[in-house]
Design brief:
The chain contains ten helices and seven strands. The chain is α/β, with parallel strands linked by helices. The protein is elongated and about 65 Å long. The model has no long low-confidence stretch (mean pLDDT 92).
């Protein structure tokens, strides 16, 4: 297998939220106050459409006062401002890009979070966010979209085209989902005793693989 592209999850992998205010969850709770229950379909709507908080309230049929909407927007701004890259994120991307790999970021996001991720990693080759492609991990379409943007075909294990590897902190979204689509998925667990505790280890795994592939090709 020749790895030619690496796809990163965003939150929990490249960036973290330091101050969680959960504005979209608060919006859904506003609906509950008025007798409207919410579930997975509502979350899917929020994650697969480019919606502001006001747009989301209208589409979901949630009554929210102007005053409360201002409060929710302030909560959102506070959460967005607290987003911080992990210390190993930029070095990992830079090192792998310098090794000749294409880099993508694939994540389930509500619309306001995408620009924040983009500004932290401007040199990435492809961004594939759920609110832009209209599908969420672990549906195979989102991984296929990421691969298409990177010029890689999922499941292509032989020949010169190569394949992609994905890394993230969700077993379902970043390991099992990609694997079902023909992409190698690795599980990042940011804890000391885990098999893959950080992106430094992940980067070394990929570099070792590239070195072994090059050595085999020259033998």
């Amino acid at each position: 297998m020749k790895v030619v592209a690496v796809i990163f999850d965003a939150f929990g992998t490249l960036v973290e939220i330091r101050r969680r205010t959960n504005p979209y969850r608060a919006l859904l709770l506003e609906g509950r106050k008025h007798g409207r229950s919410y579930g997975a379909d509502d979350v899917r709507t929020l994650m697969t459409h480019p919606l502001s908080l006001a747009d989301a309230a209208e589409i979901l049929g949630i009554h929210v006062s102007d005053r409360r909407l201002v409060e929710l927007e302030a909560m959102l701004d506070e959460e967005l401002e607290s987003i911080t890259p992990f210390a190993d994120a930029a070095p990992a991307i830079s090192t792998l890009a310098e090794a000749g790999l294409k880099i993508g970021i694939c994540s389930n996001l509500a619309a306001p979070y995408g620009p924040v991720v983009r500004q932290f990693f401007p040199g990435v080759d492809a961004f594939c966010f759920s609110y832009e492609v209209g599908e969420m991990k672990p549906d195979r379409y989102i991984y296929e979209s990421a691969c298409a943007d990177l010029g890689v075909r999922p499941g292509h294990w032989f020949g010169n085209q190569g394949t992609a590897v994905m890394v993230g902190d969700s077993l379902k979204g970043d390991c099992y989902g990609p694997r079902a689509a023909g992409i190698k998925g690795l599980h990042l667990q940011r804890m000391q005793d885990s098999k893959l505790p950080d992106l430094v280890c992940f980067t070394q795994i990929i570099l070792d693989h590239i070195g072994a592939h090059q050595k085999a090709g020259s033998a």
